[in-house]
Structure formats: structure tokens, C-alpha cells
## 1
Amino acid sequence: MQSLYESAIAGMPDCHAVSVQDDLTLVGPAEQVFAAYDRIVTAAPSYHLTLRVDKCAVYLPDSLSEELSRAEVVDECTTRQLAYSNSLETLGVMLGTDSDVQTHCEGRINALEQCFKTLRHAAMPVQVAFLLLRSCALPSLSFLTRTTPPELLRPSAHRFDELVRTTFFHIMGLSPDRIAKSRIVSAEQLQTMVALPLKRGGMGLRPAERIAPSAYFASAAAILPDFLRAFPALSNRTYSDTELHQQLEACRSLMREQGVAAKAAASPADETDPSTDEVPQAPARPSKYQKRGRKPAVAGAAPSSSPAVSAASEETSMLMCSVNQLWSTAATFSRSKNGDSAAFLQFDKLQRCATQMIEEKVLTQLKNDSTLRRRTLLTANSTLHSSTYLTVLPTQPLYRMSNASLRMAVRHRLGVLPYDSMERQQCMCHLHTSFTSDPDHFHSCVKFKRTLLTQRHNNVVQVLQDLAVTAGFTAIREPNSHVRPEAIASAANLSKEYNHHADLLLLRHGLKLYIDVTVTRPTNESMLRSAPQSVSTIQLYSTRRAAANKHAKYDEIARVNEYRMVPFAVETYGGIGAEATTLLHTMAAHSKEYSAAQFLTHAHARLSVALQSSNADIAQLGMEQLHLRQHAGNPNQFDACQRERDRRNSQYSQPANGNQLQRRVSLIVQAADAKAAEREEEEAAAADESALAFLHERRVGFADVRRILSPSGTVHISA
Ligand SMILES: [Zn+2]
């Protein structure tokens, strides 16, 4: 194909051919394009190819306004039986009038409606539906955002975003309006949160409207060298008249509104004099080399700033410089390197940089508008691995989450009530916490400390034990046969103190790891009160505290036994403490069956799913308990009557007392029995001795004359 295409445009400098697989687009003056077309028609049979004329079309832009040349083109088309129009769809992009482009975009959204409808189907598991929504449905507009001017895409993008949002709320069984009524979070804030990426504490449903300007800008900037090479006359003439230049400027101003230029004042690129924009100092250059070789600035790098900082500022510098600067950089680039235009700006990831800046601003704004509790929640949600359960593919049973569990987990992540009906309720514990003040109160309620919370703890221990065994460790649950430190050894061996022990002892070669698991909640009332600043801004702060407590508790035992004490502290929101992470890496290093990376992926998936499923259990069973209590509190209910009966009965001896009594009585009875038996034996013996003694053989007996007159001469009397 390549040679066919090349021969078609040979000797025609103004005719350009762009091919993607078997799709060929010819651009240029009419006579050259038609000549090239004729060459292909003629040469095709020698390549054993037939050109489908019915699939070919000519795009006649309205900008071609000269009547005469239009008529000529139409004539040429008719003779070749080619269709012509003032709009043309090529490679999924619509060329034509604004309304044609908008109709095309609307058509794409219409085609996607069915996909969203399927995701909302009741038979679709929630976990699968969410994965499909985020990974398949959401990116379906990204090609349009890269190829359609944002102004034209806006109505369709808005509709698409609305579809994504409503589908998400439908899948998760959430109603933003109902949630807003509880006054925990406004519907707007909730939607902003949902639209944030997972690593910034949201649900990863980034709106197309937000990315449209930077996507189109990045895409248009990347083709600049090709554009300049295709139209060499422009680089000498004034280029600001071109549509491309105007579009770039339009995108740039939209991006500035979104906050991409917010850091411009601080950026070094902007400090360089804007009045002289002849030759820009090619800011992209160093970053490109850096990226390619992955060698952080070896030659001539400024030693003053750290590599990370300089790399970041270079990456963003192309976003900061003016469109004119960008244009002349592209011009320099297209002149200096022939045929390597693919590399232009490809390594700078303009779109990603811009999106990151925008989202940084959105998050800062959201945090400023939020309460302390919700700021803390956002910080906790943005820790690494806190969202693993949302991205893991349910390829094995242990990675699966039930619909109810996943919905609960998402409510937990969004910081809303587990059940909307809880908005006016209080907990039954002595604190009487209202759930609107702390929607996740169940997760640290004292009422459930010994039951539901212990169950969650045990589930995490179990996962850890499984993982350790997979990695080849010997795991001992509740290890209690250690050497006691002196201070404890003297305690009675049934005492609580003497039997103090951590959750797991992991043995492998020379390693002795002493593990204690603890689940913390950064949005806990006491945590928010005692360290509001730290807990709301520092990731994993709550686990640091918990780990320190565990060290204080077990370090002495570990020292005496030469164990290495490792507190495994995780947050209810999924964050994994520093020492816990180290432990997982240690395990991964010992795994022989899997590579370290595979092991860690598996470990995080299992921990995340187990933790969030257990969290869901706490919310569900907690709610059940709450209901039970409420019913018992109602004076007309059966439970209340039962309680009254119990109270009245308590005046009499109760089963507990009865048992005691029975035991005491039975001792006396047994003793009496034994004594009686003894006496009987004594009497029987005495009877043998005295042959003439009277014996009461039977209590009841009548007229047994034969025995009365027995041959032995003994006289028996029957009574
Ligand atoms: Zn409570």
C-alpha cells in the first residue's frame, strides 16, 4: 500500500496523503487531488486491489467560495461518479459546518445510551457494572475530546457527563437529593467528589467537559510541525489568522479559566520576557531528552533544584508559554528534524499535566468548602491502595464483593450515611452519637467492640495469615508460648497480663515477625478532637498513632523473645500504614510462587476486599442491632412486655440461683443416701448374725404363709 500511495502523490508538492491502515485521505488543490486519485484508480489493479468508488467521498468546504472553482470540482466529481458534500466523516471525525459536527457528536452519545442502559440493568453485578462504567464507558468520549473543538463538543459532553453521573448513582443506589437532605454533604459537593480521580479521593469519574479544552489543545499542539510542513507558506506569513491558531487560543483561554494558568506567575517559563517572542528558549527540549533516556539531567543540569521539581516545571512550561511561543517552537522543530515529527510534545503529556492542575484546584476548592470531617475523609481516601477494591477485577471468589457490600463500601468512601433512614437517629451506646454528625460511627462504636469490630479485625488477621503462608512463612495464630519479660512473669499465669500476646507470629528462616493488627478510623471523634490539623492533612496519620501504641504494648515481649514487632495498622478507608507496607514487601520478597509485584497486587486486592466487606458487615449488622433496640424501646412491642415479665420474675429465684441450690442440695442428698446405704448394710450384717431378729423384708406383702413358716425357723412378719 505504501508504494501505491507514494507513487500517487509523487511530483505533487501541494498534495498531501495521510493513511491510517487502508484509509487514505488526500488533501490539496483540486487538480492535484483528482490527479492523485486517478493514478490510484489506474494502478490499483496491478496491486490486485479494487477501489470501492461508492466508499469514496469528496469534501468541499464552504470556505471554498469561488463559484467557478466549486463548479469545476463538482464537474470533476460527477465524471468520476464520486459523491461530494460540504461535510465528511473520516476516521471518526466530522469535517464540516458547526452544526454537522455537533450532530455527529450527538449521534455518538445516542449510540452510547444503550451501553449505559445495560450497566443500569438489575441483573448486572454492582462490582462489574462499576468497573465497566469507569474503564469502558467513560473513555468512549476521549477520542472526540481530542478531535472536536471544545466549544462544539460542549452540549454533547455535558449530556455524556450527566449520563455517567446518573448511571453511577443508579448503580450504587444513591440519591444525591436524599443525601443532601441529611446535611452531611450538599448534592453539588457530592458530585464534585465523585468526579475526582480515585487517587484524589473521588470515584474516578472524570467529566468530559473538564478535560475537553486541554485534550483538544494537546492534540492540536502535537500536530503543529505537520501542519507547518504541509503549509510552508504560513510560517513566513502571519499565522495568527489560521483557524488552528484561533482554536489553540480559544482552548488556552478556557484552560486558563479552569486554573491551568494559576501557577503561571510562579512558572519560570512565564518570567522570561513575554515582549520578545521571536525565538523561544525551547523549553520542551531538555525534558524530552530526560524522558527518553530516563536519565535525570546529567549534563549541564541546574544542581540547585531537585530533579523532581525541575522535571515537573519543564513539563508544565509548554502549557504556560503563549500560543505564539508554542507556534515558533514547532516551527523550529519542523525545520530542525525531518520526519521525526511524531516526537513533538509526545513526551510532555500536556493533557495529563493540564488535567492534574485542574483537578488539584478542584480538590483544594472542595477541601476549603468542606468540614473538618470531610477534609479528613478526602485525605484518607487519597492514600495509596484505599481504592483497590474499586479497581480489582473479580477474577476469583476472594476478589468479589457482594452488591450490598460494595454499595456500603462506596457510601463509606463518600462519607454518607449507610442508610438514608438514619438521618434522624442516634446510636444506642452511651454517647448517643447522632449519625448525621458521624455517619461512620458504627465503625468505632463501643457497643460493637467485642463483636463486629473484633470480627473485622479477625478477618484482616486471617488474610494476613493466608498471605504469609502463601509466601512460605509458618504462621502461628494467637502465639502464647513465648518467654515472658520479668515484670510479667511474676503475674499469675491465668491473669490477663500474663497472657498478653499479639495476633500472629510469622517464622521464616531466621526471621521472627511478631504481628499485631489494628484497624483505625481517622474520622473518629477522638482523633478529630485531639489532632485536627494533622489528621486532616497528613495521610495515614491515624495509623502512626496506632502503631506507636502497639509498640508500647509489645516491644518488651518482642525484645525478650528476639521477635521483630510489626504493628499492622490499616485505616477503615483502606490506607495501609508504613510498617504494614514494609511487612507486605518483606512477604513479597520471600514469595517463590509469584513475583514480588504479583504478590503485592494480590495482597492489596485481598486486604482491600476483606476490609471493605467487613466494614459493610459492621454497617449492616449495626443497623440491625439498632432496629432491634428501637423495637425493644417501644412500650407496646413484644420485647418490652418480655422485659417487664423478666423484671417481675427477677424477684423469685432465677435459674442461676436455682442451679446453685440444686448443686448444694444434691450434695446433701447424696451424703444422706450414702449414709442410709451404709446403715442398711450394717443392719443386714447384723441380721445374719442374729437369726431370730425380725426383718422387714418387704414394705408390702400379703399372706406369704410358706415363707413365714420357713424351714429355717426364722419368723418373718409381713407388714
Ligand atoms: Zn455507638
## 2
Amino acid sequence: MAHVRLRKLLVVLFLGVIPLSAGCGTSDAAPATTAVKEITVTIADGKVTPPPGRIEVAQGQPVRVTVTSDVADVAHVHGYDKAATLTPGTPGEIRFIADQGGLFEVETHEADLQLFQLVVR
Ligand SMILES: [Cu+2]
């Protein structure tokens, strides 16, 4: 008797898992609880605003980095290896899901400025 019940329970659990894993393929249908972390940085006269510091996000959280520079440059998120070409005065955008934990430098390659450090935990 106990065996039969356990098997039924396992079947129910197994079926219950399927809809969750099927939803993983669509990255733009993020769960409603996972708000996009918006990070906005401005570069003017070689200065970064807000001043570079650590910005924490939750692992799995979608991140959108918007960088506006007064000179042409490339913004780069290390580890995730995502980059955006910056045209003077036009915001460049980098979007990704913070799915790897750790500390990642975000910088520009021409002016070699650190924009911030992304902490994913
Ligand atoms: Cu880089």
C-alpha cells in the first residue's frame, strides 16, 4: 500500500516539474519577481558618474547597463564578455542575465575607465 502511494506521489511531483523546465527556454519571459536591475553611468571629461563602486545584483537577475559617454569608446562587462559601442552623446546599452556569481569589472577600453564592479550573489 505504501509503495503505491509513494509512486503516485512521485508521478505527481514529476509532472509538476515539467511546466517549470519548459519555461526556461524563453529568456524574455522572466518571472515577474525578477525585476531588471537598471544601472546608468555617465562619462564626461574623463570622469565617471556616479563614482565607481560595487553594485550588487541577485544571481539570475536581468541587468541593463546604460552608458553615455562624451567620447567614442567601448564599454565592456568582464566575465560575461558583453560590450557596447559608445557614440558620443548616445546612450549605449548592455543587457544580460546575471547568471554567474562573482565580481566582474565593467570598464571602457579606450579611456580605460572603471565604471563599476558588478557583484553577483
Ligand atoms: Cu574589458
## 3
Amino acid sequence: MGKTSWHVLSNGEYLTASSKLSMALDEADAVLIGVGAGMAAADGFTYAGPRFTQNFPDFIEKYRWLDMFQASVFEFENLNEEWAFFSRFVDLNYMSQPLGESYIRLKELLEGRNYHIITSNADNAFEKAGFDKNKVFDVQGKYNLLQCSKGCTPKRYNNEELMKDMIDRQRGMKVPDDLIPYCKECGAPMELNRRNHTDWMVEDEQFFSDQKLFHNFLDSYTDKKLLILELGCGYMAPQVIKHPFQQLAENRQNALYMTVNLKDYRIPPAVRKRSIWLQEDIRTLLENVQKEQQIIKMKIYETEQ
Ligand SMILES: [Zn+2]
């Protein structure tokens, strides 16, 4: 392995956060991006605040939930009530989720570059922003899919029509019995496709094909300058993105590990020398990187004239 040669590491001391990211993007042969809840929050897709209180006033009054996270792992009294909540949840976080500006910016910044994304978010943000599906690996499931709660079959089913019916026909925080979905194979209740506290979820053919594309990407750039970029990955499930990313950075001498997070998470000593922590708001950061990239393009254009 050759010595690493990232200019952003040797000359980065006096650069702004956005210049560091901009420079790293230009230096990299490929970019691996991990996206967590912090990225969604940057565009206002949060689990607390008005977005939560305005959509679930009845549930909040009954159960005194603090946020949607607490709600999403709640033990409901019955399936009628559970689906009254989750149908609205899916609508909010998937079907009616608006376009996120930071996702659009990220897509523009990645244009013409070799990249792949892995995300722990199960929302609709990447599809909505028009990302190439083959470059995004939804490792934690998707809110618009259903799975058998017993996992008897490796199949996932689209739930959008059903969720719409549930929203239309729910009364007093309950959906009618005839809308409650049960597994066609084993009769167990269906649930949203997401990983539970034991890290289990149903993985189907589509999941494995997405996973393969992700691994193919990693295998393609083993000796190249790989920018490993983490956007808003916290410590909810570090085993999904954060720890594998740090391990990858440790194993690859040419990789640069860049983490964007307001909080200061521990970086292992072995990768510290090839790490950059940007304590920045993701939305502002991407805005500024985009401006810098436009200036760079203008300069190139001017020198070519
Ligand atoms: Zn089943």
C-alpha cells in the first residue's frame, strides 16, 4: 500500500468545512456515503416537534409520547390502533414526504463522480430526489413495504394502497378489522419492513441485489482514493454504518474518513490520522460546498477561454 496523499489532510488546517468537503470530493476516485437520521433532520424530516404533534394529537393525548421514535416502538393495545398510527406514519415519512433540498444538492454534488450510498433511513428521500436506485442501499428496510412478522417467507410487499385505505377509514384511532394485513403464507400479522431491536428484518431478492451492488462498488475501488463520507449518522445503530465505515477506513490506507455531525463521536485511534470531523449543519454545509463547486467550475471555464 502506498502512502496516502490527500491534500485536504496535509493542507486542510486553515480551510473552512465546506472547502474541506469540496476538496475531498475532487480528490477522491470514488465516494462512499453513509446517510443517517441527521441528514433527514437537516431537511426538517424530524421525529419530534410540529411534524409529530400536528399529525398525532389524539395519540399524544392518550399516550403522552415524546416523539415519533418512542411511538414507533410502542406496544399497542391492538392491531387496529397500531395500524391507525402506522398508516399515518407511513404517509408522513414516505408517501407525502416532500422533496428535501439537501438531497437534491447532494445529488448534484455527486454528478459525474463514482459513488454509492448506504442509508439507515427507511423514508422516501432518495427516490423523491431522483437518485439512481442502483446506487442507494436501504439497509434498514423501507416504510412502504410490509413483511411477515414471523419472517416465514423472504418476500416484501408494497403497502401504499392499503395505507391510504387505512387513513381514509380509521375512526377514533382504529382501523376496521378487514384492513388489518395478515401473512398469506402463515397467517401471522404483517408489519412494516424495518429492523427490530435484534437487528432482524425480512430481506428479499431486491434487498440482496441492492446489497450485491453495494459490495461490488466497495470491491471496485480497493486501492483507490476512497472518500468515506458519513452524513448525520449518530449512535442509534452504529453497527450499521459508523463502525463498518471506520473499519473500512482502517483497512484501506488510501481511504479518507470524513464524518459530518454536530456531536463529537469517538474516532478510533487507527483512523484518526486519516479522519476529518466536520461539526456542521448538513444543510448549510452542502449549500456552501455547492457554491464552492460552482466557483471552481467558473474558474476552469475562464482558464479554458
Ligand atoms: Zn408468514
